[in-house]
Design brief:
The complex is a heterodimer. By secondary structure, chain A is an all-alpha fold. Chain A is built from eight helices and two strands, in the order αααααααββα. Chain A has one domain. Chain B has nine helices and two strands.
C-alpha cells in the first residue's frame, strides 16, 4: 500500500513532469493563459494517461516488441479521441479555448514516456497509480503556471478578479509563457536542490 | 498574392514556435548548435509538406465521404509515423550522404507536435486571407505547411546562434540549461510580436 502511495506522490516534486523532467512543454506553454485553462488541460492529460497506462500494462505481453511503439500510439490516440469527444459534448467552452492542444495529447512525450518506462513492465493497478501520480503532478504545475500568468497578466485568480487594472497583457501573450515558465523552473530548482 | 500572404503570415506573424507553441521539445532539445538546427529544420520541412499533403487527401477523400471524421487523430498520427519511417528508408537507399545529415532527426519528428499540429490546423481552422474566411485548398495547404516549417526553421536556427553564445556566458547556477533558454525564447517571442498586424 505504501508503495502505491509513493507512486502517486512522486509526481509532485521528485518526478514532476514539467519542472524536473522537462517533458510536455508545448501544452505547458500553450494552454496556461489562465489557471482554469491550465487545470483543464492537466486533467484531460491525466485521464488519457491513467487509461492508456492501464490498457497498455494489461496488453503489453501480447504485443510483439518490434511494433510496440505504433501499438501504444494507437491505444493512446483512441483514448485521446474519447476525451476529445466527451469534452466537446460536456465542456464546449473549455474545448474551444484549448483547441488544437486536445488532439495533440497524442504526441505529448509524457504519455508515451510513461507507457514505455513504466506501464509495459508493471501491473494494471500500479500503472494506474503511476499515471495518476504523474498526471496530478502535471495538473499541479500547469495550474501554477496558469495562476501566475493570470495574476500578472489579467489581475485575477481562477476567474475571480481582485485587482481593478488589467495587469500586464504581456504575460497572457506568448512571450509571458516562456518567461514565467523559465523563472518558475529556477524557483523549483532553488527549492529542491541544496 | 494570397500565397505571399500565407507565407508571410505563417513565417513571421503566426510563427508556429514562438506564437503557437508547437514543437517546443525539439526547439529546446536540438538547438545547441547551428548545424544541427539546420539539419533538423530541413527534415521537418520535408516531412511536414509531405504529411500535410497526404493527410489533406485522406481527410477529404476518405474520412469525410465515409462520415468517420472522429478517426482523424488516430489516422493522422499513423500516417505521419508511417511516412517518417518510409522517408527514412527511401533516403537511406537513394542518398546516403543526406541520410547521414538528416538520419538522427527523422525518428524524432514523429513526436514533433508541430507536424501533427499543422496537419490538423489545415483541416480544422478557417483562414482569412484578403476577404472572407475559408478553408485552404490543397495547394494552399502545402504552401502553408512549407511556410510553417520555414518559420520553425528560422526560429530554431536564430535561437541556436544565440545559444552558442549563451554557453560561453556566465549565468547563475540555477539558470543553467533550460531556464535561461526559456527566458531567451521569451525575449525572442517578444521580438516576433513586432510582426503582428502585418497581415
Amino acid at each position: 500500500m505504501a508503495g502505491r502511495w509513493k507512486l502517486i506522490t512522486k509526481g509532485f516534486v521528485k518526478d514532476n513532469p514539467t519542472f524536473a523532467l522537462v517533458l510536455g512543454m508545448c501544452p505547458t506553454l500553450g494552454t496556461t493563459t489562465s489557471a482554469i485553462n491550465g487545470m483543464g488541460m492537466g486533467v484531460a492529460t491525466m485521464c488519457v494517461l491513467v487509461l492508456s497506462n492501464m490498457v497498455i500494462s494489461a496488453v503489453a505481453r501480447f504485443i510483439p516488441d518490434k511494433v510496440r511503439i505504433p501499438s501504444y500510439i494507437v491505444i493512446i490516440s483512441a483514448f485521446v479521441t474519447i476525451v476529445q469527444l466527451l469534452m466537446q459534448a460536456y465542456l464546449p467552452s473549455l474545448y474551444e479555448t484549448l483547441g488544437l492542444f486536445i488532439p495533440l495529447i497524442v504526441v505529448n512525450c509524457i504519455v508515451l514516456g510513461r507507457a514505455e518506462a513504466f506501464a509495459n513492465k508493471n501491473g494494471v493497478l500500479d500503472s494506474a497509480c503511476d499515471g495518476l501520480g504523474i498526471g496530478l503532478g502535471f495538473t499541479l504545475s500547469l495550474t501554477v503556471v496558469g495562476l501566475v500568468r493570470e495574476i500578472l497578466g489579467s489581475g485575477s485568480a481562477f476567474g475571480w478578479k481582485f485587482m481593478a487594472p488589467d495587469g500586464m497583457l504581456l504575460f497572457v501573450l506568448a512571450p509571458g509563457a516562456f518567461i514565467v515558465l523559465g523563472y518558475l523552473m529556477v524557483l523549483f530548482r532553488k527549492l529542491t536542490t541544496k | 498574392m494570397e500565397y505571399i500572404l500565407i507565407i508571410i503570415s505563417a513565417v513571421f506573424v503566426n510563427n508556429i514556435l514562438l506564437s503557437q507553441f508547437l514543437g517546443v521539445c525539439p526547439f529546446l532539445g536540438v538547438s545547441k548548435k547551428v548545424g544541427t538546427a539546420l539539419g533538423m529544420s530541413a527534415a521537418v520541412t520535408f516531412v511536414m509538406a509531405l504529411a500535410t499533403c497526404v493527410t489533406y487527401l485522406l481527410q477529404y477523400y476518405v474520412l469525410v465521404p465515409f462520415g468517420v471524421e472522429f478517426l482523424q487523430t488516430v489516422c493522422f498520427i499513423l500516417v505521419i509515423a508511417g511516412l517518417v519511417q518510409m522517408v527514412e528508408i527511401i533516403i537511406k537507399k537513394i542518398s546516403p550522404s543526406l541520410y547521414q545529415a538528416l538520419g538522427i532527426f527523422l525518428p524524432l519528428i514523429t513526436t514533433n507536435c508541430a507536424v501533427l499540429g499543422v496537419a490538423l490546423m489545415v483541416v480544422q481552422k478557417q483562414f482569412t486571407f484578403g476577404g472572407e474566411a475559408h478553408m485552404l485548398n490543397l495547394g494552399q495547404s502545402v504552401v502553408f505547411a512549407i511556410a510553417s516549417a520555414i518559420g520553425f526553421g528560422l526560429a530554431i536556427v536564430l535561437f541556436a546562434g544565440i545559444r552558442e553564445q549563451l554557453e560561453l556566458s556566465n549565468v547563475p547556477k540555477q539558470f543553467k540549461g533550460v531556464p535561461i533558454a526559456l527566458i531567451t525564447a521569451g525575449i525572442m517571442a517578444m521580438a516576433f510580436m513586432g510582426f503582428s498586424g502585418m497581415v
